[in-house]
Design brief:
This protein is α/β, with parallel strands linked by helices. It has 9 helices and 11 strands. Helix 2 links the parallel strand 4 and strand 5. The chain is globular.
């Protein structure tokens, strides 16, 4: 693994030691994955978004949405309350931004949100509201979380819902993400692999590619059981997602027809396997959706042209998954097939 370059981000014209924490969002490094994917076949690079100050790609979206609401007067420091639904990373990003701009925050989460993520939000001063029951119609938490958000909006004066699922400023934040990639490579990649959730990253990157008439083909990585790109196949119905960060129980309003060239669906076990291979071979500790992208890249040999340049978006680091993806006991209890059956044999990484 070597660092290729880091992209640029507009910051105030002042010395770096006078730049505030919000101004350094973006400009994350692009690194090669030569150990995991032999370069004689294709060049694969990873855009490591865990280097953002809040630890994930969601810093970009939070900054874009909150600062637009401040500019337009929809949010007033010291007065307004932001209410949002999040499984983790956006909640942390919003908590940092709201603390910085002196805004109140209520983040609606569900039992899949880790204790560590909730602790980080609370450290920034956010109120965390846990939804315990799944939506009876869909059996998923997301509709229940959104219903709770609407309840808060109706009862709290001057409350504001950024609505990451429909806010175009979520998508616009990623024009810069794609620009940084193209600048680092001195041209567009042949393929962009990215996980799909709210579809803000997907739409923003594609908008940049279209605006600049670039021919990069986009591969969306979705979760087994997700409905983003169509109803699940019958065999997917029994799969219940436990790893947050990609996939969705509803079709995000930010999704538009024709954004992707190909969709690859991966299971939770695929995510775990991808994360652990990435750590073992590249020494990159990354989150679940990064493992999903690695798993998707493993499947492309049959249709990926030799010599292609590929970029994989890694949304966050793995430090927030130490009790799940990187915990042997947690993984073995859910995915025993990933471990050797011989208990006398030294346990190896999947």
């Amino acid at each position: 693994m070597t660092v290729l370059a880091s992209g640029g981000v507009a910051v105030p014209a002042c010395p770096k030691w006078e730049t505030d924490i919000v101004a350094v969002i973006g400009g994350t490094p692009l690194v090669t994955l030569d150990r995991l994917f032999p370069p004689e076949k294709s060049r694969v690079y990873a855009k490591c978004e865990g280097f953002n100050p809040g630890g994930s790609i969601k810093d970009r979206a939070a900054k874009s949405m909150i600062e637009h609401a401040l500019r337009t007067g929809r949010l007033v420091p010291g007065v307004s309350t932001v209410v949002e639904s999040s499984s983790g990373n956006l909640g942390i990003a919003l908590a940092q931004l709201c603390n910085f701009y002196r805004l109140n925050l209520i983040c609606v989460v569900d039992p899949r949100t880790t204790t560590q993520n909730m602790a980080i939000m609370r450290a920034y001063g956010a109120r965390v509201d846990m939804v315990e029951q799944r939506d009876p119609a869909t059996g998923e938490f997301l509709p229940a979380r959104i219903a709770r958000v609407r309840s808060h909006l109706a009862s709290i004066p001057d409350a504001y819902w950024p609505n990451q699922y429909a806010n175009e400023h979520n998508a616009r934040a990623h024009h810069t993400t794609m620009r940084e990639i193209c600048e680092a490579l001195a041209g567009p990649p042949d393929y962009l692999f990215l996980s799909a959730g709210t579809c803000g990253t997907l739409r923003g990157c594609v908008e940049y590619l279209r605006d600049h008439q670039l021919a990069t083909r986009v591969v969306a990585v979705d979760a087994v059981g997700s409905v983003i790109f169509g109803p699940p196949e019958p065999w997917e119905h029994s799969h219940r997602r436990t790893i947050p960060g990609h996939g969705a129980a509803v079709v995000p309003p930010l999704l538009q027809p024709g954004l992707v060239d190909r969709v690859v669906k991966v299971s939770d076990a695929d995510c775990v396997r991808g994360c652990r291979r990435l750590l073992a071979q590249e020494s990159i500790l990354a989150g679940g959706s990064s493992g999903a992208v690695v798993a998707a890249l493993d499947r492309v040999e049959s249709w990926l042209e030799p010599g292609s340049t590929c970029v994989a978006l890694f949304p966050d680091g793995g430090d927030r998954y130490l009790d799940t993806i990187y915990s042997d006991s947690w993984v073995e209890s859910r995915f025993p097939e990933l471990f050797p059956h011989d208990q006398d044999q030294e346990r190896s990484e999947p």
